[in-house]
Design brief:
Elements lengths: L3 E2 L11 E8 L2 E8 L2 E6 L2 E6 L2 H13 L4 E3 L6 E3 L3 H4 L3 E2 L12 E2 L6 H5 L2 H4 L5 H38 L8 H55 L5 H4 L1 E3 L6 E3 H11 L4 H39 L6 H43 L5 H18 L23 H19 L9 E4 L8 H12 L7 E4 L28 H19 L2
Parallel strand pairs: 8-12, 12-13
Antiparallel strand pairs: 1-9, 2-3, 3-4, 4-5, 6-7, 10-11
Helix pairs in contact: 5-10, 6-9, 11-12
């Protein structure tokens, strides 16, 4: 059926023809496999002949079962229809690998991460459905498209802003004449700016001269005060001579009196305070004019870029029109981009609203834990270490003779949870190979077989075991016992002769597929 299993080395799988007949909704189908080729018949009609498991075969099974599993490929990250192994995974326990780990019976499934593989159980529990997967896939697609649009938006914005910067120095114009008129505007503005800059510079120079005068006169008064204190005992002629601390010039009381008369004060200390206030005021005014001068120079520089008498008016016009058209083009693209992102975002919100209507994972998990716990206790395999460690997507691991019981308890717990929540996904036969392989106890063997026979929510249980007749299993279910007596043979000579023609026809068909 397209799932790869492990065979004993004595079994030559490449020389064998495999045939299984199944009934789905009272419709009969026959699946035949020889090596890597497959044939599917509906009644007697051939409806598929292929060697493609990952596409043709799994698509046909989806149509037949109305069920499929979708998983993200670990390499491409794309959600894809998973091979048949994930449809059959919870229904098959292999004799060798199946009892060494839960859901461990199939090979060739490494194209999916381990954590994603176990999530295929959500499909069997009807938490995920085909519609759900389509919604998830659509959401992933929309998210990718939004990322692409955002990347494109960033490139558009960078280009748009660069063009916008280029147009800062160009006036909009529809004709060359209009452009030439517009170019006269900065010429007049430049003349006005030059005049303002000249006046500002003159004012700065005037303020700087006044400031130096006040600073000089302040120093004269301060020096006079020092000399007055230090030279009081000296002769009157010496007291009338003073030296300027700035330039070394010697002055007498007459110069000091002139300075003092400029401020109309007699008290030297008060005079110094007033001069300092004047100096501060002039300094602040000077700084304001300096800032104004710098700003005017910047504006002048920009205007000089705008107006260049050496530019050819036609060249400027062509450049201006081209940039204007380009700006309109890129601005429209940015607008369309934003509209698309908004539309995708609205659709994603609708999808998320639909996804919130799915069965509650927490509720399903709690019921699963309850069933598995009871199953382990029924099998007399309970260990306090399991408390709090039973999880749907994280199987319990056990050692030795308990391992088979723990694995079986989790399989059956899944079926019971499916039944409790009335999962509408396809129910397949449960195939169990050698469940007592590690169990030496007769009583434990009975417990294991009894639990398998309690699985009545599935259409069929196919059990392979030894010494079945020794256990006297009581069941109300219909049991068809097939006893194999020939070693390494599933088909005796009588059965082979009965089906020989069909076998040969199918081998011929599949060999030539």
């Amino acid at each position: 059926m397209g799932a790869e299993v492990s065979y004993d080395q004595v079994w030559d799988k490449n020389s064998k023809l495999y045939i299984v007949t199944i009934s789905v909704n009272d419709e009969d189908y026959r699946v035949a496999r020889f090596q890597k080729n497959y044939a599917i018949f509906h009644n007697e009609e051939l409806i598929l002949l292929t060697h493609s498991v990952g596409y043709d075969l799994v698509k046909m099974f989806e149509e037949i079962f109305s069920f499929s599993v979708y998983l993200p490929n670990k390499t491409t990250k794309k959600i894809e229809m998973a091979p048949p192994a994930f449809t059959f995974m919870p229904y098959y326990i292999d004799q060798d690998t199946g009892w060494s780990g839960l859901y461990n019976s199939f090979a060739s499934i490494d194209q999916y991460l381990k954590n994603d593989r176990i999530k295929s159980l959500y499909y069997h529990l009807n938490i995920y459905t085909r519609d759900t997967v389509e919604l998830l896939a659509r959401k992933d697609y929309l998210m990718e498209e939004i990322d692409k649009l955002k990347e494109k938006e960033e490139k558009l914005r960078i280009t748009y802003e660069a063009l916008l910067h280029e147009t800062d120095n160009l006036f909009p114009a529809d004709t060359i004449e209009e452009l030439e008129e517009n170019m006269q505007i900065p010429k007049e503005q430049i003349a006005t700016l030059v005049d303002r800059i000249g006046k500002t510079r003159n004012k700065m120079q005037s303020l700087e001269t006044t400031l130096r005068q006040h600073e000089y006169q302040l120093e004269v008064i301060q020096e006079y005060q020092k000399i007055k204190l230090k030279e009081a005992p000296r002769a009157k002629i010496e007291k009338n001579l003073h030296t300027c601390p700035q330039c070394g010039y010697t002055f007498d009381d007459e110069l000091y009196n002139i300075v003092r008369s400029n401020y109309n004060f007699r008290n030297e200390n008060y005079m110094c305070q007033q001069i300092q206030l004047i100096i501060k005021s002039i300094s602040e005014e000077l700084e304001n004019y300096k800032d104004r001068y710098v700003e005017l120079m910047k504006v002048l520089e920009e205007q000089e870029k705008v107006y260049d008498e050496s530019q050819d008016a036609y060249e400027v016009y062509v450049r201006q029109r081209g940039l204007k058209d380009s700006l309109k083009h890129f601005l429209k693209q940015l607008s369309d981009n934003a509209f698309e992102q908004s539309g995708y975002g609205t659709e994603i919100k609708k999808i998320e609203k639909e996804l919130r209507k799915l069965p509650n994972k927490k509720e399903v998990e709690e019921k699963y834990i309850e069933y598995v716990r009871l199953n382990i206790i029924q099998l007399d395999a309970w260990n306090p270490a399991y408390e709090g460690n039973i999880k749907l997507l994280k199987p319990i691991k056990a050692q030795g003779t308990l391992e088979n019981k723990i694995i079986l308890a989790q399989f059956v717990g899944l079926f019971q949870t499916m039944e409790y929540f009335k999962s509408r996904s396809i129910r397949l036969p449960f195939v169990v190979d050698s469940p007592r392989a590690k169990e030496p106890s007769v009583e434990s063997s009975k417990n294991i077989l009894n639990m398998i026979f309690q699985v009545d929510m599935l259409p069929q249980v196919i059990l392979a075991t030894t010494d079945y007749a020794d256990f006297q299993i009581q069941t109300e279910q219909k049991v068809n016992v097939i006893v194999l007596t020939e070693k390494r043979k599933l088909l005796n000579s009588k059965d082979y002769e009965l089906h020989k023609e069909l076998i040969e026809d199918l081998i011929e068909l599949l060999k030539n597929a």
